[in-house]
Fold this protein.
Amino acid sequence: MSTLHDLSWPEYSALSIEQKVPLLARPDGMPYHTLFAQQFGRKELDRICALATKIRFIAKSREGMAFLAGLLPHKRAMIYFTQPSSRTFLSFLSACQILGMRTGEVRDSAVSSEFKGESREDSIRTFSSYFDLIVMRTQEKGLAEHSAWALSSSDRPVPILNAGSGKDQHPTQALLDIYTLHRSFEKRGGLRNRTVMYVGDLARGRTVRSLSNLLTNYEGIRHVFVAPPQLQIGQDILDMLRAHGAEYEVSDDMRAWLPRVDAVYMTRIQDEWDETKGESARIDTSRFKIGPDEMRLLGPNAILMHPLPRRDEISTECDSDPRAKYWRQMRNGMWVRTALIAATFDCGEAIDRY
Ligand code: CP
């Protein structure tokens, strides 16, 4: 079987996602490079959720924290974020700290040698010379994937974790979203036969694209995409769901759906992607916001999620409602990213034995 470094970039990029997945995996099936959501099947998702829960409990004691910090003190991580971030950056930083890793960071290409004209490829190769893991968030779709391929033929093919690439993928956000859904429903029949409603800017929101992909691993999930027509989900995601035999609806009537769903996944209008000035501001988004009136329509056992940051699509009056899970969702990101890094470096069994 070919490995990543046997293939030229045109050969690799011509492969289907299904053909790429084994090239990016560790022998145990977990991703070595985490680049897109489709790398996670049900087995890998169950493993990440179980590891995150175990880590969460171990971290409650001083002895447990000392154990976790002893797992990877010999590894260093580069956190390379050239797009703004609070949660993803800080949760990856915290995850590295929990596992005892030391970190370096570049948060603006204007302060690296890219400013002097160095290519992204050479920059990544430079990071791999000093670090054992690269976590990257970029404006460009596919850059993490290209970097993983480029490093594969170097003497330091260190793992790359995609922390958000263009409008396309945010696989680790989707992992923490799955973990939040899993935790919310684990004592109430589990994450199957649930209706998940995504609301807001679905055209440009990479979190919805990655999450809808991951949810195809769960039986009977029905997807409802609610947005103004200009911001509706891409046809490629609908085609993907159809290919998986998943049920979906496309709507612009959030209030009609609120009583009928198990989870609401709100998203912000992503006007940073506007191609013309004021383009998003001209779209009427007033019917895609949640406040106390909308919470009254939502079922008593349903949950409200948001990848955050939010603007006004969820009013702060919702924060104290027990169905609002977005702050827990955010903290879950730290546990899930710790679990992912631990799995990437084969620490899962040591954590299981603790
Ligand atoms: N959810 C998310 O990716 O948040 P940040 O942009 O703050 O990292």
